[in-house]
């Protein structure tokens, strides 16, 4: 004889699997089910996610290697929030924290149980070719050079000297990420916005008229001053090598891996180093995250194990540190370890 399972319990147990299988038949889905982990998102987190995927595959013989796509943080979150099911990603890698509006979009589409895992720290780096002019900038210099309407006035600056007489007489030319990128969002928040707020009137505007503040402080001018290069930081590195008078914006890990070809542009007198990014003295220091659908755990094979492999590789002395990821403090790393074990849910209040 065997113990009978109550029908209600059995039904609740199979709902997630049925939901995933059913969604797998939607347009764009490869099949009715999936036997590998799917992750999308940040180009900055992309190389780390691939290394974690390799570590997972090595430790889990017979299981499929996770598939990681570089879509940009914003584009990845949009796909992640599109719904539950095998036709949607399990994970979005993010080089900034999820916005409340994105969390609400997820909820509206049935993605109501999200797990947030901080996996490390990275820096938003500004770099130039080793053959470049050895420029050093402040946040205000960068704002005055790249804002469409600095302090509400049309931007007429053509060279860095037009921005600041102490800077070289070199044409303003910056290669950077597109608006779908978390690196772009971080650049606006950490560098452009802070440069704008150096003006007392702009600081006051932030409280009195947020839309106007956003327009003045976060809107970039276009080419040839700021040129979007897509979700490929390596392409920006190549552009700088070929154009030594240009600057580029990318993740610190890409700077650190290519120091034979490029060097960092100090911001506010602080160079981008592992120590300055880790302790937050470098203005572009930022956390990196994974967002995971709890409904997919236990249904998509290997999902929780991949998260465990990712966090293990992100620890002190792990494989990701060798590729430029700056490990979390001991306390935050312990939180990440508990999170992949206990799977606590993110709430909108935590994002405010």
Lay out the secondary structure.
Layout: H1 7-23, E1 38-41, H2 46-59, E2 67-68, H3 73-80, E3 91-94, H4 100-108, E4 114-129, H5 139-146, H6 160-163, E5 174-176, H7 182-196, H8 200-208, H9 210-218, E6 226-228, H10 233-242, E7 247-251, H11 252-257, E8 262-264, H12 274-278, E9 285-293, H13 303-313, H14 330-342, H15 348-351
Parallel strand pairs: 1-2, 1-3, 5-6, 5-7
Antiparallel strand pairs: 3-9, 4-7, 4-8, 4-9
Helix pairs in contact: 2-13, 5-7, 7-9, 8-9, 13-14
Keywords:
352 residues, alpha/beta, D-Maltodextrin-Binding Protein, domain 2, nine-stranded mixed beta sheet
Structure description:
The N and C termini lie far apart (54 Å). Helix 2 crosses helix 13 (303-313), helix 8 packs across helix 9 and helix 13 (303-313) runs antiparallel to helix 14 (330-342). With 352 residues, this protein is an alpha/beta fold. Helices cover 40% and strands 14% of the residues. It folds into two domains: 7-121 and 287-351, D-Maltodextrin-Binding Protein, domain 2, CATH 3.40.190.10; 123-286, D-Maltodextrin-Binding Protein, domain 2 (3-Layer(aba) Sandwich). It has helices at residues 7-23, 46-59, 73-80, 100-108, 139-146, 160-163, 182-196, 200-208, 210-218, 233-242, 252-257, 274-278, 303-313, 330-342, 348-351; strands at 38-41, 67-68, 91-94, 114-129, 174-176, 226-228, 247-251, 262-264, 285-293. The chain has 15 helices and nine strands. Strand 1 (38-41), helix 2 (46-59) and strand 2 form a beta-alpha-beta unit. The longest helix has 17 residues, at 7-23. Strands 1, 2, 3, 4, 5, 6, 7, 8 and 9 form a nine-stranded mixed sheet that branches. The protein is globular and about 60 Å long. Mean pLDDT is 89; it is low at 1-19 and 21-32.
């Amino acid at each position: 004889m065997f113990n009978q399972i109550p029908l209600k319990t059995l039904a609740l147990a199979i709902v997630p699997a049925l939901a995933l299988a059913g969604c797998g038949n939607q347009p764009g889905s490869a099949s009715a089910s999936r036997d590998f982990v799917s992750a999308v998102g940040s180009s900055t987190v992309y190389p780390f996610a691939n290394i974690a995927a390799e570590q997972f595959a090595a430790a889990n013989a017979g299981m499929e290697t996770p598939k990681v796509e570089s879509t940009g943080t914003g584009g990845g979150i949009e796909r992640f929030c599109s719904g539950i099911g095998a036709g949607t990603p399990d994970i979005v890698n993010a080089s900034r924290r999820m916005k409340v509006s994105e969390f609400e979009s997820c909820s509206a589409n049935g993605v109501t149980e999200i797990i947030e895992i901080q996996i490390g720290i990275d820096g938003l780096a500004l770099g130039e070719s080793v053959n470049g002019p050895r420029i050093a900038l402040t946040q205000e210099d960068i704002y005055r050079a790249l804002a469409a309407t600095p302090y509400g006035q049309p931007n007429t600056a053509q060279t860095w000297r037009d921005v600041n007489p102490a800077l070289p007489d070199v044409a303003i030319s910056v290669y950077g990420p597109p608006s779908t990128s978390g690196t772009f969002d971080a650049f606006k928040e950490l560098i452009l916005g802070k440069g704008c707020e150096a003006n007392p009137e702009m600081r006051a505007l932030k409280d009195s008229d947020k839309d106007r503040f956003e327009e003045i402080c976060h809107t970039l001018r276009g080419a040839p001053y700021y040129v979007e290069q897509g979700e490929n930081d390596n392409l920006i590195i190549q552009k700088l090598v070929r154009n030594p008078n240009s600057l580029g914006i990318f993740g610190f890990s890409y700077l650190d891996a290519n120091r034979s070809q490029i060097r960092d542009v100090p911001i506010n007198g602080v160079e981008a180093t592992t120590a300055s990014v880790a302790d937050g003295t470098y203005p572009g220091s930022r956390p990196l995250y994974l967002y995971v659908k709890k409904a997919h755990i236990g249904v998509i094979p290997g999902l929780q194990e991949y998260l465990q492999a990712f966090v293990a590789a992100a620890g002190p002395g792990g494989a990701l540190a060798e590729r430029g990821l700056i490990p979390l403090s001991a306390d935050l790393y312990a939180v990440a370890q508990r999170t992949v074990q206990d799977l606590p849910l993110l709430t909108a209040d935590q994002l405010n």
